[in-house]
Specification:
alpha/beta, 8-stranded mixed sheet, two-stranded antiparallel ribbon, globular
């Protein structure tokens, strides 16, 4: 019996290694460019300022949205972080005084039990492993964002926007039926509206 590697798993492994190999300076420069690209090409063009935005704590070489978080706090926009609950995500308010606990993957989550559903957010900025210009997103493989937003219609809130390093772009991402498409992807050098 021969075993065939899932092309998504192979691609996931390659892209994770690529983003983990970025230097501290490359990561810092990418985070700075990301906030500039997001404010200039996306937020400035929104008809209405968002009230509730979800970000994430960067892990495993993901592009860091920490400067975006600071920008939103300065604009008095509420920030939420994902919390794993029953194989889906709920979102907990993130403030400078937030207390932390590790989830099953060793990722920090707010300890508060006060959560809101994804549908209550205006924008969700998602981490990703790989993306293509059609809005395809390759995540870490847990399916948490896909399950959380499985029933979301394209024109409903929240906007789902992937954040990534430019080196995570692939020409044509193999997409599965359960993959929830993104409405935009922002990298340090690109704003891709889908």
């Amino acid at each position: 019996m021969t075993s065939h590697l899932d092309p998504r798993q192979t691609l996931r492994r390659q892209l994770r290694q690529t983003r983990r190999s970025l230097s501290v300076d490359e990561q810092r420069n990418a985070a700075q460019a990301l906030v500039m690209r997001t404010t200039k090409h996306f937020l400035d063009q929104q008809a209405q300022s968002p009230n509730k935005v979800a970000l994430y704590l960067s892990n495993d070489g993901e592009i860091s949205p920490h400067l975006l978080c600071e920008y939103f706090w300065q604009q008095d926009i509420a920030i939420y972080l994902p919390v794993i609950q029953d194989k889906q995500l709920v979102f907990a308010r993130y403030v400078p005084e937030t207390k932390w606990q590790s989830n099953v993957y060793g990722i920090q989550e707010p300890t508060t039990t006060e959560h809101i559903a994804g549908a209550d957010l205006d924008i969700v900025f998602l981490p990703l492993v790989g993306f293509d210009s059609n809005g395809g997103r390759l995540g870490m493989g847990g399916g948490f964002y896909d399950r959380t937003f499985a029933n979301k219609k394209t024109d409903e809130k929240p906007l789902l926007i992937g954040l990534a390093h430019d080196c995570q772009e692939v020409k044509n991402l193999p997409v599965e039926g359960w993959d929830v498409p993104l409405q935009a992807i922002i990298t340090p050098t690109q704003f891709i509206k889908v």
